[in-house]
Structures are given as structure tokens and as C-alpha cells.
Amino acid sequence: MPMPKPKTEGRYLKAPKAGQSITFRVLADPLEFYVAFKTDEDKKQHPVRRTSLSDFRPGDYDLTDKFGKASPKYCQAFPILGPTRDVMIVEFRQKTILDGLFALDNKPKWGDLRGYDVTVTGAEDGKSYTVTPEPKEPLTEDEQEKWDGLVRNGFNLRVLLNCDDPFKECGVSGGHEDGGPDFDSPDDSIPF
Q1: How many CB atoms lie within 10 A of CB 109?
Q2: Using an 8 Å Cβ cutoff, are 72 and 53 in contact?
Q3: What is the DSSP letter of 27?
Q4: Taking a C-beta distance cutoff of 8 angstroms, is the pair 27, 147 a contact?
Q5: pLDDT level of residue 165 (50, 70, 90 thresholds)
Q6: Nearest 5°: phi and psi at 27?
Q7: What is the radius of gyration, based on Cα positions, of the chain?
């Protein structure tokens, strides 16, 4: 059975599912935080983000989810040039992805993630990921202008901590009906 292509609509990109790959370019330093989920009265889950574990209070998040005991998870959100070469945001909670990005960033041969594209591939068993660097090449003038234009117009990744949309801050539609990121549902993520 052929695997469907990962969805890349909107401004938010999810980690690939088993057997899928995504290629992107990191544009700036990540935002580090912890995330947990709270179910509202309509049974919709919403992210609760805090800069440290000690910032969570009793009742801030659900204590159990479909995977069992729930607790806040360490995350990093990156502004990226996505597969469509548009500026997007990707949030990673998966340890194998974060470890792979860290390893590349700290290898002298590769270094700063902003200098090359990275491909993340979900393992067929759905339990891990591989992170592979692509050949180094500079951004095109058009790609650099897309990013610089957003920054000039107020793009601010830190507003994710309040569950706001960094693209709304700079007058660009977030591509999601309520304006917030669509990568926050734990249903499509590997629970580690």
C-alpha cells in the first residue's frame, strides 16, 4: 500500500507519520517549552504551554489521555521553510527528532541548522524518526525575503506560549479556522 503524502496545507506542519517524510529549512532559533493538553466541555483538546514544568498548576491539564498517564512534554517549535517553500511553524515533541536535530547542529561538518534543509522520516513501525541533512545551500532571494518580510511585520514565535498565532501578529492568516496551530492534537503524534 503506498503511503499518502503528508499534509502541508496552512502554516503549521506536523511531524510525519509512519513511512512519511518531510523536508524543511530551519529559519531561526527554536522556542523551547513544555506542553500538555486540557479537554474542554465540548470534548476538544487544547494545548497548555508553559516555559518550565514548575509553571504548571493542578488542573491546568488532563492527567490521563488515550495513551495513559499524561504529563507535560518538552517541546521545541521552529519557524521553517516547509515542503512548499513557504514559511511555516513545526512543533516537535518527539525525542528522536529533537535528538537528531541537536546532533546535526553540534556536528562541525553540518553545524547551524539554518544552512541546509533537513529531512525527517517516520519509521515504518511508527515508533521513531530519522533526521537526515540535505546538501548545504543558501536560501534563494525569494525565500530570504519571505522570512525577512514576516520578521519586519511582527512575526513573534513566543506568542505560541499563549496559544496565539504568530502569523496573526504580522497580519498573515494562520490557515486554521480558529487561527491557532493545528499540530496540537496528540491524536497524530507518537507519544514520546
Answers
A1: 7
A2: yes
A3: -
A4: yes
A5: confident
A6: -105, -20
A7: 17
Burial category of 4 from C-beta neighbours within 10 Å (exposed 0-12, middle 13-18, buried 19 and up): exposed
pLDDT (tens digit per residue) in 106-137: 999 999 999 999 999 999 998 899 999 999 99
- The pTM assigned to this predicted structure is 0.80
- End-to-end, the C-alpha distance of the chain in Å comes to 27
Q: How many CB atoms lie within 10 A of CB 55?
A: 14
Name the DSSP class of 43. Answer: S
Site of grid cell 496540537: 184
C-alpha cell at 151: 520578521
Write the single-letter amino acid at 9. Answer: E
β 12-13/87-92 pair status: parallel
| SS3 of residue 26 by DSSP | strand
Entry field: residues in the chain: 192
